[in-house]
Amino acid sequence: MAAGHKCLLFHYILLSVTFVCHGKDLFFNDNENVILPGSYNVPWMAGIEDFHTLSLITIPGTHDSMALYGGPDFERQALSLRNQLMAGIRFLDLKVFGLGNTLYVMHGVVYQHSTLKDVLDTVRTFLSEYKTEAVLIRVQPESFEKTSVNEMVQNLIGNDPNVWVASGMPNMGQVRGKIVFVQKSTFTLGIPLIDTDGKGNPKVSKIKDKDNRIIKQLNEANEACGGDNAILTSTGGTGLGTFWGMFLTPKRVAEKVNPWLNQYIRQFYPNHPRPCFGIVAMDFPGIDLIQTVRNLNWW
Q1: Of 138, 161, 251, 284, which sits 20 to 30 A from 84 (CA to CA)?
Q2: pLDDT per residue over 103-129, tens digit each?
Q3: 297: which DSSP letter?
Q4: Whether pTM exceeds 0.85
């Protein structure tokens, strides 16, 4: 083969490999850097009419949103909080540990280099730039005195009019530019939450079983949408601690589940109306998967 043809063949193979790798990253992302296309619609909630209640909106979120540190057993995300918000994430799932007067963001025993105040400051800055948006936040107390977390959060937010702590389900017009707290269990600020996985992110032994469980959960979410509760489905998981799934770290689960989830959701695009799946909280989501979830809202 001529040298020129060899160079062309090598160039073609290189381009093909680059495309395949990039294609995977559209749905699964473990890179801390995100480059959004110039045409990317950051304030996507601007397209939702004011009268729609939050419980009728399909909202892309992250599960263990700040779990960026601690190694394969603990890491659930790669994007910083700011980049998650810019990419379209509108639900944050936070585990906090109260010590003294500070609420530290944790995942298990691993401190995630942030306090709840840091998180709220970042979200407030984002919402000051994109006033059409709203960001839902679930706080899960990890402290021994879990009930004290309510008081600590209340002290942290004060009487800020841009934070929704009422239990009534608001419509989109009422919460633009606001943080909306979501309550469950011992945390009682904000709108009530129903988790379609009552056990809370069970162990994964087989990816196919996980896929089927997500289908069941999304069906339950669609049936419950539009009510007085926010509906949450978490698509992440881990096989660590099980015999058959011992090598399925959260990242490996997401790498397999996320492209499947994208394909599963897109099958509903021809439907009129499209289904409502409530909050879909993901591990390591790529920007195309985030767009696929949020685009269910174009009725």
Answers
A1: 161
A2: 999 998 999 999 999 999 999 999 999
A3: G
A4: yes
| Phi-psi group of 100: left, alpha or beta (phi > 0 → left; psi -120 to 50 → alpha; rest → beta) | left
Strands 163-164, 134-141: pairing kind = unpaired
Per-residue pLDDT of 160-217, as tens digits, reads: 999 999 999 999 999 999 999 999 989 999 999 999 987 655 689 899 999 999 999 9
Q: Is 210 exposed, middle or buried (0-12, 13-18, 19+ CB in 10 A)?
A: buried
Considering only CA atoms, give the Rg of the chain. 20
Sketch the domain layout of the chain as residue ranges: 47-297
Separation of alpha carbons 270 and 298, rounded Å = 11
Domain 47-297: give its CATH code: 3.20.20.190
Residue 181: its H or E element: strand 178-183
d(CA 75, CA 94): 13
d(CA 224, CA 231): 7
DSSP state of 285: B
Task: Find residue 180's DSSP bridge partners.
Answer: 136, 164
For tokens 């009019």, what's the residue? 161
Q: Bridge-partner residues for 60, per DSSP?
A: 280
